[in-house]
Amino acid sequence: MKHFINRRENVVTEALDGLLETTPLGRLARLDTYPDIKVILRAGWDKAKVAVISGGGAGHEPSHAGFVGEGMLTAAVSGEIFASPSVDAVLTGIRAVTGTPGCLLIVKNYTGDRLNFGLAAEKARAEGFQVEMVIVGDDIALPDIAQPRGVAGTLFVHKIAGYLAGRGESLEKVAAAAAAVARDIVSLGVSLTSCSIPGRAHEERLGAGEGELGLGIHGEPGAERIPLQEVEHIVALMGERLMPILSPDADHALLINNLGAVPPLEMNLIAHAVLKSAIADRVTLVLGPAPLMTALNMNGFSLSLLKLDAAKEKALIAPVEPNCWVAPVRRHSIEIVKASASATARAEAPASRNAQRETLLTAICNHLISLEAELNRLDARAGDGDTGSTVAAGARSLLSALHDMPLDDMAALLAAIGSKLATSMGGSSGVLLSIFFTAASKKTEDGGGLAEALLAGLDRMSFYGGARMGDRTMIDALEPALNALAAGDLIKTARAAREGAEHTKSMTKAKAGRAVYVSERDLEGSADPGSVAVAEVFELVARMA
Known about the structure:
Blueprint: H1 11-21, E1 28-30, E2 38-42, E3 51-58, E4 75-81, H2 87-97, E5 103-108, H3 111-126, E6 131-136, H4 154-166, H5 171-183, E7 185-191, E8 210-213, E9 224-227, H6 231-242, E10 252-258, H7 264-275, E11 283-290, E12 300-307, H8 310-317, E13 329-330, H9 355-370, H10 372-382, H11 387-401, H12 410-424, H13 427-445, H14 450-465, H15 475-485, H16 490-503, H17 520-523, H18 529-544
Parallel strand pairs: 3-4, 3-5, 5-6, 10-11
Antiparallel strand pairs: 1-2, 2-4, 7-8, 7-12, 8-9, 10-12, 11-13
Helix pairs in contact: 2-3, 4-5, 6-7, 9-11, 9-18, 10-11, 10-18, 11-12, 12-13, 13-14, 14-15, 15-16, 15-18, 16-18
């Protein structure tokens, strides 16, 4: 795996300094004990209230230093990546922020953290400090083990303990509340990959078609491997493990945590899947989706649920200073606003039947859908790898609308196809094809034949899109095909389209479309995916004629 680092031994200290440099001045500071002791603390802390300290190995960012600030942690003690901080580091952190009111240590349930924070607590007590420690073991992945792991649910404890400490509550009350919160949390994670540590060789243990349920936040093996499947099925499986443990008559807060490498698009999709699953019936407050306690670049997510009461809810929704925290939202339905139709919109033609055209359009759409993976592969050489998906989306939308289309009215049919593609195909492709079919419809209305109408559509598409023959676009297949179609020979039409598509393999410099940004080396020998789609359509039409 590749990483953006300088020297491996400086990764953690440089990352912490980056956090400090990008946080508003006056909020955070660090002790002058680098590199062996890494403590981030609130700037200007006066020790007048209970201090709340957490920490552990690095690699879980923004945990833990990202949650230092008013309303949450007073200090965070960091070890190296996935390595607990030393006893001396924790003790130094305690000394730095603890006054007469004392301090609370919040520790995830891992042996190294328990031992190092625990011994530091004992030494601090021997020095006269009041210290309490709460251990969080919220992971339910391995129900039979005596010491469940502490994972993202720990953040609920940070938030509520920080809230109470900020109000000036006693150490006894803050510690008791934190321990009660820790007992009311359940968490479960799932991932499609393990994680890679910067500067170390990485070997992925999961196969291409596998995921892992219940793996730890250090990449430890999970409870079981599961087949790669739709996210709603993965969420349902997680729900089967979580639901029996939840209090049946209680409301819960749900934290949807990105374990590091899931794109925001997919995290929002995951949130939607969770909030329409059986879990949602138990949820009142939602936090995330967001990367809150990560495992470096693990491509996974976790769900944490906290049993709520009025006091916990009040503490969770209270505002805090750290920017990394996400404010909870109350679970709600989606608000939908009706779109207004244009007063000048053309009236849609009524649906009509034409068996021959329906058969042809159905075959074309199904064939384009079957080409999705291959067109994406071709596009990945020159773009963002989505041409196949875009074309397939348009084809699926046409298939679903065929029975409502004016199949027996060519001008109206071309207009309907243009209108449908404008809304169902993303990016520039949908707009260009909509222009093509809309202009062709107008030419048909004016008395032109099909070939003449399609050439008129091509003219308008080329005018607005700016592409010409030789620019390495779909036009390189479409223009020669339509010129051949005007002569009435479908075999020559299909051959012209294929020859045009093949010719794009030798065009190593694109002049239009996203491929203009791609190097000649990456384009060499690869056909333009749009031109390939055009050739496939004309070849299919020729075979069916």
